[in-house]
Amino acid sequence: MSYGGGLGAGFSYQKFVHFALEQTRLRTALTPHPSQEKFKFIKANEDNTVFNALSFSAPKIRLLRSLTIEQKNSVQVLDFAAFFEPEYDLPIFCANAFTSPARSIVVLDLNPLYDTTAHKDYREKYYRNFMPLIHKYSELLPWGGKITSESLRFFSPIVIWTILEPTETNNHVLYSAFMDYYKAWLELMNGAVQEISKDKIDRNKEAQHKYLTWRAEKDPGYPLLKKLIGENFAKDLVTEFLFEGVNTLGTKSFLDYFPEYASDDGAIIKKRSMIGKSFETRPWNAHGEFVGDGDE
To answer: Is the pLDDT score of 85 beyond 90?
Structure first.
């Protein structure tokens, strides 16, 4: 599939997905996830739009799923994530990219299961050895500008959050970063030791459910999905595919986890970026410590 304009000829996020699946299969056995069947064929309302949805599980991986959306000469979207079984407290792999002919908006991270500022031991355990990754890419993929502490809630010290022109060079750098980050995540998987304490497993399960609950409610791609496939199917895609587990891993609601978002009538305040400070530059130092003094 070839794309003109600022996307560059032949650029496709399918390349990212193929790399990840190939690398994963070198290390573990992937089997189709139950969500795969329902979402294998997604028909968009617009003829120029192609959806590709894949989901798998593996002995240590509860869910590995990818969604790409390709609109010829227009928009390309990547939403790729991988979640471990609750017997492991490892970070969640997350790659989100929205590319138009004018710009690419990208988040690439190993999202922490536990807050890395409050849980310094978790930061040391999983991010200390990977700080060279962000040192490698912080200039090539610079901080994308002002972002609120609401958006930072589930980011790690090595997060890449960037907005850039989708040139051939920038696309190559982005692919390189994706490969490096995914290989780092697989390295963590290889070394993961299964937890046997029921209390710790339950805590991991709740932490993952909290993450899923946040992402399902705050998904910035939902308006595009609603436009392309309708509101009902978009809701199903979010809760049963992209963030599968939000209805089964736990019973707490969004407001149970995040009561500060409750309106006077008990509904969820929908306004984005409503809580906390905003940060113009990367708020972590070279050691992964949170040092940002954002603006109120």
So the answer is: yes
Residues in contact with 132: Cβ distance below 8 Å, sequence separation at least 6, in sequence order: none
Alpha-carbon separation of residue 1 from 7, 11, 157 (angstroms)? 12, 8, 36
Confidence of residue 2 (pLDDT cuts 50, 70, 90): very low
Question: What CATH class is the domain 5-279?
Answer: alpha beta
Q: How many CB atoms lie within 10 A of CB 178?
A: 24
- pLDDT (tens digit, 9 = 90+) per residue, 175-224? 999 999 999 999 999 999 999 999 999 999 999 999 999 999 999 999 99
Plot region of 73 (φ>0 → left; ψ -120 to 50 → alpha; else → beta): left
CB 265 within 8 A of CB 88: no
State phi, psi for 233 to the nearest 5 degrees: -70, -35
Handedness of CA 16, 18, 19, 21 (dihedral sign): positive
Whole-number Å distance between alpha carbons of 60 and 292: 35
Instruction: Tell me which DSSP letter residue 295 carries.
Output: B
